[in-house]
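Homework help thread (please don't just give me the answer)

Our assignment gives two proteins as sequence + structure token strings and asks us to describe the second one. The first is just a warm-up. Here they are:
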Amino acid sequence: ASVGRELTRRGYALMGFENVLGCRLTPPGGPSNDGGPMPSRRSSTDLTITARADDRAAWPGWMDALIAGFGQPDLVPGGESHESFARAALEQAMGDMALAEGIARYVAQRSGEIVGAATMRCTGGVAELSGAATLPAHRRTGVQSALLTRRLQDAAARGCDIAVVTTQPGSQSQHNAQKNGFVLLYARAILVRDPAVATIPA
């Protein structure tokens, strides 16, 4: 309990919380697991999900969809997202992500139009689902659920037995994850310090 007080004394401010959720995966065609949550396999039939794994070449459609989606955060109960990023920062972050080892990139298309994008990284039997965004005009139409379902299927096929995802509390992302078998592992506080604030000696 003293950590929060000490960080506050040093100029950090609580900006919000994030929930980390996880689920067990079952290999394709394998028996059900030991009672853990099983991901849903339902998705919108009018959506096409395309994946590129370990491809270091640029994929403009993927990056453009992520930048557009993250540039307009979704509203959540209790107010807006605490996250806000300039386009230049998003471009840098997405560019770095595109070059990372083991990253699989996904786009969702409806009638040939890219409407969303996502990423996944598999390491040590754990699939980290991240970087999912839907274009504002296509939210609440099953895009995120379709991207989530496809990544869970691919993670199981690649030998992962656990998947994790981070969401905002009470968000549609958390709702979709829980519908697909995820359960809350823990919540983490987001504390931010203005670099201009003078450091208080320990």
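The one we have to describe:
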Amino acid sequence: MNAPLAGRTAFITGAAQGLGQAIAAGLAQAGARVALADLDTRVADAAAALNAAGHTAIGLPLDVRDEAAFERAYDDAVGQLGEIGILVNNAALSPARSFWDISAAEWDDVLAVNLRGTFFGCRIAARRMRAAGWGRIINLSSLAGQQASSASGLHYAASKAAILALTRSLALELAGTGITVNAIAPSAIEGPALDRLDAARRDALCTQIPVGRFGLGREVAAAAVYLAADDSGYTTGATLDINGGRLMR
């Protein structure tokens, strides 16, 4: 059995459903022990399903906007699963709202979850990983943070663009410590966000994708497994685009 992450422990935010759940499953299948964290109470069911499949997983409640709560959840995961070597910052809000209709409160909340939560996770994990001399930090951005689209709220796009800048800056800060920091930028992946679209909008979106289909969570998870493994140690400050060819560079 190929288990490139055997002996490692991973902490994944926003893991109750969608991409976070898929990434947690991919890391578990690669041999990692996984801590799934989310405000959504279904995170316990997601962890239970992985345990039933023969993996080692726990589900933890977490509001990533609260740094102290993040610290407690992280420490709880360490206590139950061992030192964490892999962090995946995936938790996000993605309201698709017109620029004119975004309230100040909603702007602040989206930035608090998507960007501030990622900052908290990076700093909490980096402190511990630096002491251990090894670590992998993976931040979820989006195509929306790289090119304009009417399909995404401006606040969501701004947060995802900022995550790319945070990733590069932190990668430079931690270079030479044994810790890599990278981003994954998916687009049009099957899951809750696409499920909210009606058939006409789904069809219109699919026509914009050169490969002619939507992406799968397991394809994003495969990228996370690569970035989490020992063999990715020469990759840092990078963005892996998983978008079916919508952005080529």
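TA reply:
I won't write it for you, but here's a hint about the kind of observation we're looking for: The CA atoms of residues 92 and 153 lie 12 Å apart.
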